[in-house]
Amino acid sequence: MRKLIFIVCFCILSQTSFGQFSYSATATATATVSSTYTLNYTGLVGTSSITTLSDYLNGQTTSNYATFAIKSNIPWLLEFAANAATFTATGGGASTNMPCSVASIRVTGTSAFKILSTSTQTLNTGNRGPTSTSGNTFNIDVNYNPGLNYNGGTYSLSIMYTLTNQ
User: What is the 3-state secondary structure (H, E, C) of 36-68?
Assistant: First the structure.
């Protein structure tokens, strides 16, 4: 009987000792973060008017024509191009052949205007961050210089702005 009690105790004790082993496992967490950017365009000036002889001969600059505000988690590139080679004449005897190249654009505070064309050009570049990041919010100036080659009237032209990664 003692042997039987000893064997039963031994079996019970040996089973409880197995409970003291430890096991571990690892898991890998995966997250996919996509590139994202947004562009907010705010027109500040509704219409630019060329009214004096000096405007016709030297061009007329409208400062702070519009504001761009960009949010991005990657470095960005903003490009622009005219949607048509000529302005649309919308009234007042306007010429139907005024080219988009009579207009030019620059970032406010820079010196060189970029002549508008149907070919894509870089307007500005910037860094990741919210609109409060330096350079992610900026204004543009527009210059119109038709010379004396086109009738007076009302003209319009669409400009495409494209935001991409650098």
Answer: CEEEEEEECCCCCCCCCHHHHHHCEEEEEEEEE
Token pair in block for residue 92: 């007042």
Percent helix, strand, coil in the chain, to 5, is 15, 40, 45
Are the beta carbons of 50 and 56 closer than 8 angstroms?
A: yes
Q: Say which residue, 122 or 93, is predicted with more confidence.
A: 122
The Cα–Cα gap between 120 and 164 comes to 12
pLDDT at 126: 97
Does residue 14 surpass a pLDDT of 70? Answer: no
Do 78 and 68 contact (CB within 8 A), yes or no? yes
pTM of the model: 0.79
Residues 6+ apart with CB under 8 A from 150: 94, 95, 97, 98, 102
Amino acid at 139: N
